[in-house]
Design a protein that fits this description.
Number of strands: 7
Shape: globular
Largest sheet: 7 strands, parallel
Distance between the termini: 37 Å
Strand order of the largest sheet: 3-2-1-4-5-6-7
Keywords: Oxidoreductase
Order of helices and strands: EHEHEHEHEHEHE
Family: Belongs to the short-chain dehydrogenases/reductases (SDR) family.
GO molecular function, one term: oxidoreductase activity
CATH topology: Rossmann fold
InterPro entries: KR_dom (IPR057326), NAD(P)-bd_dom_sf (IPR036291), Sc_DH/Rdtase_CS (IPR020904), SDR_fam (IPR002347)
Organism: Pontibacter flavimaris
Radius of gyration: 17 Å
Helix content: 40-55%
Number of helices: 6
Structural class: alpha/beta
CATH class: Alpha Beta
Length: 233
């Protein structure tokens, strides 16, 4: 697809992968809206990027509806949804509670599904569109303490495959990007970005993968793309 004047909605766009992706796509001529739960941070990030700010929580169905209303009122057409918003938790199996699963799943699974559902309504009418889900290598291989997070990303992977089968007939490309460890604010209690490490992935590598996947001609798409650090050891 052509990124010039494409209308793109990115959830969780105030930090990390979402922010870096918004910056790269805006630099390529796209019109981008970002969502974030913190109004001050969302307004600041959007101002820095030149993006449209939408203060919203993907775990809140009313916010999901309001997000699409605001986006479509401004742009009138949606070309890409990037389901980037996500939260994590690391706990041993014998310490887990039902609330742990519900809190993570409301964002990583239910929120992503409700955003995709609204996007699918738009895309079916348009007969074109793109959904990019930000997964994780955790979905491909579990890790100690990862029962909740890894399973949430495995669910997202399964949903991605389902949506691919449902939406291809409407010229909708649904793609999954699986980053390995990225030095973002993910999992940080204070939501402050970690400093870059020479042997770890940056948000920019994932943004580049997203941009590259989108730029393939619309006649083809990459169902799943995994990005590993070359030498993290």
């Amino acid at each position: 697809m052509e990124l010039e004047n494409a209308n793109i909605l990115i959830t969780g766009g105030t930090l990390g992968i979402g922010y870096a992706t918004a910056k790269l796509l805006i630099g390529s001529g796209a019109n981008v809206a970002i969502t974030g739960r913190d109004e001050k941070r969302t307004m600041q990030a959007a101002g820095d990027l030149g993006a449209m700010p939408i203060t919203a929580d993907v775990a809140n169905p009313n916010d999901v509806k309001r997000t699409f209303q605001a986006f479509m009122e401004k742009y009138g057409r949606l070309d890409v949804l990037i389901n980037n918003a996500g939260i994590g938790l690391s706990k041993p199996i014998d310490a887990l509670t039902l609330d742990d699963f519900e809190n993570i799943y409301r964002v990583n699974v239910f929120g992503a599904a409700m955003m995709a559902s609204k996007a699918a309504e738009v895309f079916k009418k348009q007969n074109h569109g793109n959904i990019i889900n930000i997964g994780s290598t955790a979905a491909l291989k579990g890790y100690e303490g990862g029962s909740v997070y890894a399973s949430s990303k495995a669910a997202l992977r399964s949903m991605t495959q389902t949506w691919q089968n449902e939406l291809r007939r409407y010229n909708v490309r649904v793609m999954l990007i699986n980053p390995s460890e990225v030095t973002t604010a993910f999992g940080q209690p204070d939501r402050q970005e970690r400093g870059p490490q020479t042997n770890k992935l940056r948000s920019e590598e994932i943004a580049w993968a997203i941009k590259s996947a989108l730029q393939m001609d619309d006649r083809g798409f990459i169902p799943e793309l995994t990005v590993w650090a070359t030498n993290p050891f």
